[in-house]
Design brief:
mainly beta, three-stranded antiparallel sheet, 2 helices, 7 strands, about 10% helix, about 30% strand, binds zinc ion
Length: about 130
């Protein structure tokens, strides 16, 4: 694969069949006790693409961490899926002041929704109107 500046790739260059990605993400700390932080991104052509480069860890003190969902996106597009869920665990190290380094292990749960250019009708998504 050619290496470009990932921030400036367009969706149609990477995934010509995709009209839009929508990512909903829930971030949890390692204990999973705290309420998750959620974010939703909608990706259209010419916007930054979170689907290509790893997402940063929620913790600023985390070194070498992040969540890589590129393989999940690739799998979704390859199989023409419209919705999938996944989870990633941060492999970074927390280096907080006055405490020894500890594994980060924060969790990302994500829901990816994809619209394709050939999705003309909203109800065509998971129920193909086949009469076989
Ligand atoms: Zn982390």
């Amino acid at each position: 694969m050619a290496k470009k500046h990932p921030e400036f790739n367009k969706i149609e260059e990477d995934y010509p069949t995709v009209k839009q990605f929508e990512f909903t993400m829930y971030f949890y700390d390692a204990s999973r006790k705290a309420a998750p932080v959620s974010r939703t991104y909608k990706e259209k052509p010419r916007q930054q693409n979170y689907y290509k480069h790893p997402l940063e860890c929620i913790y600023r003190e985390c070194e070498g961490g992040g969540y890589d969902i590129a393989d999940a996106v690739q799998h979704m597009v390859d199989n023409h899926l419209h919705k999938m869920r996944g989870e990633r665990i941060c492999q970074g190290t927390l280096k907080r002041r006055n405490s020894p380094p500890t594994p980060c292990n924060s969790h990302l749960e994500f829901i990816l929704k994809t619209q394709y250019h050939d999705d003309n009708e909203p109800d065509a998504q998971d129920t193909p109107d086949a009469t076989s």
